[in-house]
Backbone:
């Protein structure tokens, strides 16, 4: 190997090594992008009707998830973007405020919440907000006091359990007299199960909070779940107001609003409907680092691909795959010795397979080339000039795509509709090359080359589909230098190809 | 296991694709010399200047507007060859052996119209046969009448002799014999037979077809071995001179032997294939390294280089 190339390659390896070293050691980046973490995605859509005519301002306020003990909000975005969006604290709550002149009739908002049970902090004891005024009148209070004074000697957790059970009509020994119970059920009807329970809890001197939010489960809801949080002296217990049952530790609750304030309010218009959509997400650890990186003032954090807007991030995720793909092509062609149509055609095929999937992609590819080949044979005797002939083939390929998409939509095969991203120019050239190769070198050679191209495209696809690899390049784009280094080394390889073992077998055996 | 296979190839002195490209083509063939061999018209003009015999040039079509003129230029020639100037691998070549009722008869006996010839020329000009798909020229030149020395081991077509020349020294040679499968063409990848030639004595050895070793021609059934190649010294000289002519240090010279005109240079190739090693049952790398160890004084003239090669590369007589 020649020295200069080797030194250049070493230099190219040193750049990412030092940058990544700095990021890992000084900025605390994770070294390995493994161990996906569980997160929940919350989408909120608010449908509304503005009151006045055009030019009237409206304001919508809604409770949003907040980072707190055991949960971290790693990403939240206003997706509609027509109104001004701000997040501000309001009492114990985090409120999103949309204001301005509405263009549409719908708002949407998305948050990703990371559950991290390891990060539980000591619960905060209640403040003055947890001692709401008692809604019952004097005589009702006297009755309630009489009902619970028999439990006064119990310890707080037991007392809470006993009082909560009354919501279901279970009164622990000794039972109150029937007359009191009859009057109490009238009060329960008057204030509702929740209101009655709150009266009892407050009179028993428990700090309580009314909470609106969601019990985390894959669901779509138009109303939030409601529960009561009660402070027992050590921790908050969460009680379902209708039944008095406790939420067990394993249930994850996502509070959005503490207190009586409606979860979504509007001024200057009317709410039509609010829809919350909850879904589980698997994130890689990198994504979890997103928020931290985004807020950091460090130079390398600021100059990260995470800092550019989301829709452009997507483009870079794909762009950064191309160097991995061409590295694969170099290895497969120069070290293994696969025959392919065109040099980079398999990379483009592999990128296209990302939207169609491997088997569909290969199938569609084979189908289009085969039909295209027959067509090409058919028009051969027409003696068309080169450029119109290739244009004819391109048009045929697009036509084939259209037919595939229509069939796909008829039978609900999404992969057939995703076909549009297959590189059509490359496909057309492949048809022409395939035809010429069959004419000149026979079907065997042509099929061999086709199989080689398909194999290279499939292997390349499998490699660029490795998620951690994708994310690693996204977090550490400096790895591109390492690829350039590897390519320098590959370009220096003068050794045999694996395929040449077979090709020159006769010669090797002789010695 | 793979490493052992590589080592045994290395020990046999086999030249691989990667080393050929890096060390020999990039090392000895400067870029500016490539057009001289990629364009057969340029090669022909250069050969003329250096007194190297080539098939006679009848006509060149450079523009679509001139296609109609080919008829006039041909006058009443009964036979000719139509080929792209920048074609590769023998594609786009049309051999016309006769004319009948204003139509043309190809070598394989097919009758084609004037219209079809025009279409073929138009294809050539569009660059469909050219190596990079660039615009091309169509060459019309004299048909070769092959010397009958290979007559018994040829199925139609014209056999040609390929000589690999490294730093002006013929390093390895073979003759390519058309078969029924190769459709009368002398291209190995189409199924033609390759037969190694002993550089020292100018005699054929055993052959190869696809990647299998053979001793007899598949169509005629005749023995391939021990055919003496006429004008061998002269052919070696033409090959050796091609280095001075083009300045390329590693190339393949393709020659044909015409019944009347003797050896003619057909074309030069700056990226000659590696199949010749199988036809010779011998690694090329070994010979290239021998040439690198040769004394400086033999490089002064083509004659001295040939003398060295015939001596150094002669096969042990069996």
Residues:
């Amino acid at each position: 190997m020649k020295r200069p190339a080797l030194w250049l390659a070493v230099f190219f390896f040193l750049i990412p090594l030092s940058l990544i070293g700095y990021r890992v050691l000084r900025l605390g980046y994770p070294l390995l992008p493994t161990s996906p973490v569980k997160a929940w995605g919350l989408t909120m859509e608010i449908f509304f009707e503005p009151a006045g005519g055009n030019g009237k301002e409206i304001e919508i306020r809604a409770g949003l998830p907040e980072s707190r003990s055991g949960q971290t909000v790693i990403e939240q975005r206003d997706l509609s973007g027509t109104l001004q969006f701000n997040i501000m604290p309001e009492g114990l709550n985090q409120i999103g405020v949309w204001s301005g002149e509405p263009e549409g009739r719908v708002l949407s908002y998305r948050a990703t919440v990371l559950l991290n049970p390891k990060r539980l902090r000591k619960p905060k004891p209640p403040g003055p907000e947890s001692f709401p005024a008692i809604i019952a009148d004097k005589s009702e209070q006297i009755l309630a006091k009489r009902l619970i004074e028999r439990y006064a000697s119990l310890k707080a957790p037991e007392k809470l359990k006993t009082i909560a059970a009354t919501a279901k009509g279970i009164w622990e020994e000794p039972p109150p007299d029937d007359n009191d119970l009859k009057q109490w059920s009238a009060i329960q009807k008057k204030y509702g199960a929740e209101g009655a329970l709150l009266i009892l809890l407050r009179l028993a001197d428990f700090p309580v909070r009314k909470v609106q939010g969601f019990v985390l489960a894959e669901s779509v809801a138009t109303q939030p779940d409601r529960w009561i949080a009660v402070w027992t002296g050590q921790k908050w217990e969460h009680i379902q107001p209708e039944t008095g049952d406790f939420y067990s530790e394993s249930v994850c609750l996502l509070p959005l609003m503490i207190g009586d304030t409606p979860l979504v309010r509007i001024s200057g218009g009317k709410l039509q409907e609010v829809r919350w959509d909850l879904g589980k997400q698997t994130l890689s650890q990198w994504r979890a680092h997103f928020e931290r990186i985004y807020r950091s003032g460090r130079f390398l954090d600021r100059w990260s691909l995470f800092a550019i807007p989301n829709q452009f991030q997507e483009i870079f995720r794909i762009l950064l795959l191309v160097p991995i793909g061409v590295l694969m092509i170099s290895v497969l062609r120069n070290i293994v010795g696969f025959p392919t149509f065109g040099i980079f055609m398999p990379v483009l095929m592999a990128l296209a397979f990302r939207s169609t999937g491997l088997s569909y992609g290969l199938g569609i590819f084979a189908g289009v080339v085969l039909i295209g080949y027959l067509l090409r044979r058919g028009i051969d005797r027409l003696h068309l000039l080169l450029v119109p002939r290739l244009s004819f083939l391109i048009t045929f390929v697009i036509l084939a795509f259209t037919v595939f998409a229509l069939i796909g939509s008829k039978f609900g095969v999404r992969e057939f509709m995703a076909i549009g991203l297959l590189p059509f120019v490359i496909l057309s050239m492949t048809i022409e090359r395939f035809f010429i190769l069959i004419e000149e070198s026979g079907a065997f050679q042509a099929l061999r080359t086709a199989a080689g191209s398909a194999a290279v495209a499939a292997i390349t696809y499998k490699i660029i589909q490795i998620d951690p690899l994708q994310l690693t390049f996204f977090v550490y784009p400096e790895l591109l230098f390492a690829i350039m280094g590897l390519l320098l080394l590959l370009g220096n390889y003068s050794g045999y190809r694996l395929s040449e073992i077979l090709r020159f077998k006769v010669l090797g055996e002789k010695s | 296991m793979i490493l052992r296979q590589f080592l045994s190839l290395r020990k046999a002195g086999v030249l691989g694709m990667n080393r050929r490209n890096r060390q020999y083509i990039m090392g000895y063939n400067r870029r500016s010399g490539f057009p001289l061999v990629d364009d057969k018209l340029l090669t022909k003009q250069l050969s003329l200047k250096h007194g190297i015999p080539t098939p006679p040039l009848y006509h060149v079509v450079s523009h679509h507007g001139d296609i109609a003129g080919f008829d006039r230029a041909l006058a009443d020639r009964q036979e000719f060859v139509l080929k792209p100037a920048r074609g590769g691998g023998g594609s786009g070549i049309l051999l016309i052996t006769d004319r009948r009722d204003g139509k043309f008869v190809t070598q394989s006996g097919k009758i084609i119209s004037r219209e079809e010839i025009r279409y073929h020329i138009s294809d050539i000009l569009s660059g469909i046969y050219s190596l990079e798909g660039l615009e091309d020229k169509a060459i019309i030149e004299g048909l070769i009448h092959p010397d009958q020395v290979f007559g018994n081991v040829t199925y139609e077509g014209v056999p040609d002799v390929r000589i690999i020349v490294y730093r002006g020294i013929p390093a390895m040679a073979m003759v390519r014999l058309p078969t029924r499968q190769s459709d009368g063409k002398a291209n190995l990848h189409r199924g033609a037979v390759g037969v190694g030639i002993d550089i020292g004595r100018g005699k054929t050895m055993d052959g190869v077809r696809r990647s299998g070793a053979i001793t007899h021609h598949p169509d005629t059934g005749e023995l391939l071995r021990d055919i003496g190649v006429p004008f061998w010294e002269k052919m070696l000289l033409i090959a050796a001179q091609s280095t001075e002519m083009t300045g390329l240090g590693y190339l393949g010279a393709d020659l044909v032997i015409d019944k009347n005109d003797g050896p003619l240079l057909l074309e030069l190739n700056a990226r000659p294939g590696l199949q010749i090693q199988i036809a010779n049952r011998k690694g090329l790398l070994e010979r290239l390294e021998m040439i690198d160890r040769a004394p400086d004084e033999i490089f002064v003239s083509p004659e001295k280089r040939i003398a060295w090669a015939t001596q150094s590369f002669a096969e042990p007589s069996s």
Summary: Chain A has a mean pLDDT of 82.
